[in-house]
Structure formats: C-alpha cells, structure tokens
Specification:
This protein is about 70% helix and about 5% strand. By secondary structure, it is mostly helical. The N and C termini lie far apart (about 105 Å). The radius of gyration is 33 Å and the shape is elongated. The protein has 19 helices and 3 strands.
C-alpha cells in the first residue's frame, strides 16, 4: 500500500510539473494586445527615438553586447519598438558583416510579444504589432547570398567551380544560385569564363538545367560556337529568346550573323531569326547565299519565301525564282507570292 501511495504521489507530481510546463509555454507564446495608436505613440516617443539614435551607433560598430544590455534596460513595449526601428535602420544602412548578420538572425527568431487586432466589416484579424522578424530574415538572406557570391567567384577564378554540383538542389535553390551566377559572371576573367563554358560541352549533367539562363549567358560571354550550338538545340525559353534579340542588335557583326543563321535550327526561334536576317536594307553576301540555299528546302523554304515576299527584298525573291530550275524553290516562291484570299 505504501509503495502504491508513493507511486500515485510521484505520478501526480510529474503530472503537475508537465501541466505547469505546458501552461508556461502557452503563456510564453501568448502575445499582449495593444492598439495601433499605442504602437505609433511608442515608436514616435522621445525615449524610443533617442535610444534608437544612440544604439544605431552600436549597430554600426557591431557592438552587440552593449546594444543588448541597453535594450534590456527598457520595458517590453519600448524595447520592441527600438528593435523594430534598429532593423529598419539596418535596411537603410546596407553594410553587413557576420556580427550584424548574427544579430539580425536573432531578431528574426524572436517570438512576437505584442499583437494588434484589426476589425472590419464582419471580420477580425490579429497581427504582430512589430513585424521586424521578416525584415531581419530578408537581410540575413542577402548576407548569405553575398557570401555565396564571393565563394562562387573565388572558386571560378581558381578553376574549382563545378557547375553541375553548384547549381544542384531543389528548384528554389537552383533559381537562387542561377541568379547569383548571372550577377557575378560579368566580373569573371576570360580564363574563368572559358573553363565554365567548357563544362557545358564536357558535363552532360548540365543539360538537365531547368532553363537556358546559364547556358545563354556563357554562350554570350565566351562567344563559343559549340556552346551556342547547344543553346539552339535546347527547347527555347525567355533566355534563349533574349540572346537572339541581343544578337539581332549586334548585327551585322559577323559573329552575330553567324549565330542568327545557326539559330534557325530551333523550331521556336527560326521564324524570328529569319526575320532578323531579312531585315537588313542590303543583304550581306553571307545572308544572301544562306537564304537562297534555304529556299530549296520544303519547310524552311516556305518560311523564308513568305518573309522575303513581305519584305523590301521581294525583288530578290522574284529574281531567284526566275533563274532557278529547282521545283521546290519555285513552288515555295509561288505559294509566297500568291495573293491572300
């Protein structure tokens, strides 16, 4: 009996301890309701404004021990207002270092202490009174991207960046790293660009990239014909189209003309590439011979003939048709020259 009684007392004590722990957790997570006017009043108060001005200096100097000590001297509502204002200051200050990023990460992880209830026509919404957590999280993310960009640039210059590994991960991670790569590519040396472009030729894993952004950028940066060939063979998207438009703006430079002609192998880009080639007031001989040869083909020949018939080079089309004995060419021209119904 005594043993059973002791077990009951012990279980009761454990139960009470667990209940107290749950109650404590609930009280920690519960926020205090304040009005929007209260929040505005405390943020614009002299106490908070004066403290923000003083602590901003500590933030700039990354003296976060002193900063946190000063914050601890404030009561809860002014302290939260100061923290929110300091995060806003960090956004405008821009410059980051690891100590600042660590402090901002701590702000991002803080639990909201105060909430505002907004009432409307038939609804009621509760929101955090000081929403500095998301802002701090965004600054930390920017710092992480800065570090990642620096590491990527260093690896690329040392010839150690393996694109198929660096661009791996889920779609979100791939997109973030793609954008970092595109931002850093103009700063890379010619040797680094050449080494990265070569990877698209030698590493088949890179052809599984979800879009053409990196490939198009490396084709433009390197000017390599084999890299462009891979680009035109892939399914077109906004990045391959943007590169086609860039090449059009560079024509009649020989390299641009060469790649506009090469782009006609892409089913989605060929019509625009042909239009770009036909748009010159005076056709360079390379384009002249290329288009004349295409007229002898069944599919592309009809596209070329139609575009020439609509352009100021219609006389070329008539001359080629009159001097040719190729039935395919004559048929393509005949269809293109026929009046619209």
């Amino acid at each position: 009996m005594r043993l059973g009684r002791c077990m009951q007392i012990g279980l009761l004590a454990v139960s009470m301890t667990m209940t107290a722990g749950v109650a404590h957790a609930v009280s920690v997570n519960r926020t205090t309701e304040v009005s929007a006017q209260d929040v505005k009043r405390v943020i614009t108060s002299y106490q908070v404004q004066h403290r923000v001005a003083a602590l901003s200096v500590l933030y700039v100097n990354s003296d976060f021990w002193s900063l946190e000590f000063n914050l601890s001297l404030l009561s809860a509502l002014p302290q939260e207002a100061v923290r929110a204002s300091l995060v806003d200051y960090a956004i405008t200050h821009q410059a980051l270092d690891q100590a600042k990023a660590d402090w901002l990460q701590e702000q991002a992880e803080r639990k909201p202490m105060f909430s505002i209830i907004e009432q409307g026509d038939g609804y009621m919404v509760t929101r955090s009174a000081f929403r500095y957590g998301a802002k701090a999280r965004g600054l930390v993310l920017r710092w992480q991207q800065i570090l990642l960009a620096q590491a990527m640039t260093a690896q690329a210059e040392q010839g150690e960046l393996v694109l198929s590994q660096w661009l791996a991960g889920d779609l979100s991670a791939q997109t973030a790293r793609r954008d970092i790569f595109l931002s850093q590519l103009p700063q890379l040396s010619e040797s680094a660009v050449a080494q990265l472009a070569e990877q698209f030729i030698s590493d088949r894993k890179l052809m599984w990239q979800p879009d053409n952004a990196v490939l198009a950028a490396l084709a433009a940066a390197s000017g390599r014909e084999d890299v462009y060939h891979l680009l035109w063979r892939r399914r077109s998207d906004q990045y391959s189209l943007a590169e086609l438009n860039r090449l059009t703006s560079l024509a009649p430079q020989p390299m641009a003309i060469e790649q506009l002609m090469a782009a006609t192998i892409n089913p989605s880009l060929k019509r625009q590439a042909y239009r770009a080639l036909i748009s010159f007031p005076s056709l360079p001989m390379a384009i002249h011979d290329f288009l004349k040869g295409k007229l002898n083909e069944v599919d592309d020949g009809q596209i070329v003939a139609t575009e020439l018939a609509r352009s100021h080079h219609r006389d070329w089309l008539e001359l080629w048709a009159a001097s040719s004995h190729n039935p395919v060419l004559k048929n393509n021209v005949s269809i293109a020259m026929a009046p619209s119904p």
